[in-house]
Amino acid sequence: MPFSKAQQQAIDLRNKNILVSASAGSGKTSVLVERLCKLVLVDKISIDRILAMTFTEDAANEMKDRLKKRLQAETQTDYIQSQLALLETASICTIDGFCLSIVKNYYYKIPISYKMSKSVASSAQANKAFLNAYNEACNSIDTNDFVKLKLFFSSLGKTEDDILSNIRDLINVAMSKPDSNEWIRSLMNRPCSEDTFNWFFQYFIEQIESMIEICKNMKEADEQLFSLKEESLNTCLDFLYKKDYAFFKKQFEIYFNNTPGFKKTINKVSYEKEQGEFKKIEGNILNVLYEKEEYDQDLNNNIERINTFCTLSLLTMDIFAKKKKEMEIIDFTDMEHFAYKLLKQPMIQEEVRNKYQMILVDEFQDTNELQENIIQCFARKDNVFRVGDIKQSIYGFRQARPEIMQGHMDKEDENSCLIVLDENYRSNQSIVEFNNEFYDHIMNTTLLGKNFRQDDIAKVGTARQKDAEQHPVRFLYTEYLSWMETQEESFNKIQAKSLHKNNVYDLIANDILTKHEQGIPYSSICILTRTHSPQEELKKVLEAYEIPVLAEIDHGFYTNHAIQIVLSTLISLNDPNDDIALMASLCSPIGNVLYNDIAGCCIDKEKNTSLYSLVKDKPFMQSWQQLRQYKNEPISDLIRHIYNHNDFYFNYTTNQDKTNLDQFLEMASQFEAQNDLDLFLEQIINDSNQDAVGEAYPYGKDADVVKIKTMHHSKGLQFPIVYILSSHTTKDKYSNNPVLVDPVLGISLNALDPSLKFKRTSLSHLAFVTKKNHDDLKEEMRVFYVATTRAEKELVIVDYVDDINSYSSRLNTSSLLEKSSYTGWLLHTYLNKPSSLFKLDKKNQLYKRPLPLKKDDDIETNQFYQGSISSISGQTASAAKQSLEWPIMDLNKKISTTRGTLFHEIVANCAFPYQKEDCINYAHKHNFTLQATDIKQLLSLNECHIYKEMMQNKHEFECSYIIRENEKIYHGFIDLIAWHPEHISILDFKTDTVQNETELIDKYHAQLDAYKKAIHTIEPDKKIKTYIYSFHLRKIIYLNQ
Hints:
The protein is of the alpha/beta class. Among the domains are: about 5-120 and about 330-420, Rossmann fold, CATH 3.40.50; about 125-190 and about 295-325; about 210-285, no CATH class; about 555-690, PCRA, domain 4; about 900-1040, Lambda Exonuclease, Chain A. The strands form eight sheets. Strands 15-16-14-17-22-13-23 form a seven-stranded parallel β-sheet. Strands 3-2-6-7-1-8 form a six-stranded parallel β-sheet, sandwiched between helices.
């Protein structure tokens, strides 16, 4: 399909900073990839001169795959082949991936060790380090100040855990700022800002406006009463617009005391719902109608508490950073902050700016302040291409700031260009028109302002979408109040509501079965949920109806039975005196021990006696003891032995078990410290305690299954038929929180009366809650927009309601403030103004759910390969130089080998230029004491100009390689490779005691030849130079082969 005029402009335009505002389904990914392809194929900009940043790794991989296919389809010239060779290492990655590459390249400028630059912390490691840092910070801060802070939290019914949680909140927001420490310091001793005062008044304005809306709607019932109320409330509103709190307070009290009340029944008609809503709003205002002096006093009282809280946060951040440096790990925030710090250095900034001729940024609407500043550091005046859609900015919890994109959209200068992609190529015409109509209505309101503009109105892109069978958006629901009247059995409202809530899953299941009977494959259907929480139960219900389903359940991996057995075995092998782990392992198919055999050994067990001490010599322990001989093998090998023991993996696990076990082995294989079982178990146990990892998927990508996804994870995807589970709980997240943090307003504390016994809402808290509710409401609408724009042919929204007629009033400030969620927005919109684009589908009776299917034992006996076997031999480059002699086994650890390994690690992990103290400390941490000669030999590298040049260019220590030659596999690690503009340098470190350089050349030239041959196969067009650095001779030796 040819590109549209706007799409082609986005692909072809050059020498501008381009911002593409691309609505859902407008083909922005195709445009982005086509622009990338043209830059490489037509403009002949080499792929290594382009930076393309995506939001996810999957998106980056897809972009690489598309470019690879285009390159492979071209005539294979030298240029095309060079681009294919560069593709795997191209800078097509997430922004975190890009930042990590900057850190790895320039780690010595931070400075951190090379090891730290490439060691990304697990969530368990980072969490443990943070907790330790927080505890140390609590001990370091002024005791009196900390006691006062704890007393404040305690008086508000909170604990020290809440302090920790709020500290995390502040630090999370701060870390999205270019200078986190400075931003937190700016919050201390700060008076209340004008923005905070504006949001404070906004709270009262929207409450009064809601009351006025109700009065207008009630005039038909009692014109005189509600006109009087409306007039008095409008006077209140005038004072609020003038920012005169004292007069507003006085006027509202006059209104409340002198205006007749709102009765439940007027002229024999019940208005109980409207009266309840009106009185609730009155109560909201009266509850916070404090004297101005009280508000002012609360602000003053909180300054000292805010200072203590900020000081504690700064201390925690500082200690956390030190602990990560000690552990030699970085987390994701470090990647961005270290990269920003490096890119602020003029030399690095210039290098990176010169390197990237073009910069492409996808999903720009989800950029935060720090990420925007990182891009600005090295961007040229006219080489950034950004793509995004503000309506799809749904990552506020990650500090995404859609106003950053809005600022670029509003920018008008000669170097900037805005292109709007407003044609939808995904959804049928009825769905496109529904989304236009619905979001134009709910995103443009008195409360929230205008958030759906003329440019956001999508046009249908193809005739196919118009000619296809059109389906109105369907609201599939049950109504429990009317249902109660039809039942012979008596139900109260709570019981009826619960039954209908549970039956929502059955509504979806039966509707899917109807579709499937019509010939629609399950793989065409996706169910979207707001969060992960309902997915497990929804999956069980669909499976009860024999519907195959793939859900994104975010837990359960570590509680899987097979994983539990393997974990218990690992723990018990590492520590046989762990009774619980040992018992679990022995009684599993791995140990294959009968429970009664163990029980018989424990009859006379004394307290504090381990189970292992009682059973270790028993005959039934022989099988388990066989596993212990592998305890000191690399972790991944040990796990393979466990899987194979007693044929556990093949004969005692289900398909789901095997999928999980495969994933567990992959995790273990990627663990860097393969010989540190203690560290591996510590990390895995911490992760398992959080239970935040979902089970591995047992289905292939193309399996015919219904998919269940969260709305966030559906972004960028599309499905023929989409069901949206509309019901979800909207909790008050803020009013009961002692501390609130906002990226714009800063920090707020709630208040206590002078006796410190009673909580009251502070002025700043009222302002923060109001702003946060606005921000959340806007983002929730954007989340729903993402969900409703995934459907190609049919969109079905599913829920239950009490009484459909209770939504008959129009969508206004009052109904938006109710937090009535998606169902409320839909019904308030379309019951008040019906449309052919929206259809009600009521089911009068509840479905009877089938009993859950009892799964047959799906443990299979695996078939093994019985054919002929051929083999190839493997060899390392170091071994290639050795003669074929029978080696003499030496079981003693050689000091020379230990010293040589340590020298390699020091140069790889300490910052260059090397410092004496760093070298000594590193050796000490590894139980080795450097002699004076050792230090001189290590520091001699600082004086080697060739080595300095290597450190200034892109380089990598311990670079692995593998090549095949003459039916042999050569594999190994090269000590150091450096990529210079015109050549590649290979350097091998040697600690041998020799008389001259000839000895080293004779001894190691074969090894260096193998290295050179390996790199030549990867970089055939580059000149390769090989060197030996002799620590003993303190010189670099060039091998001129």
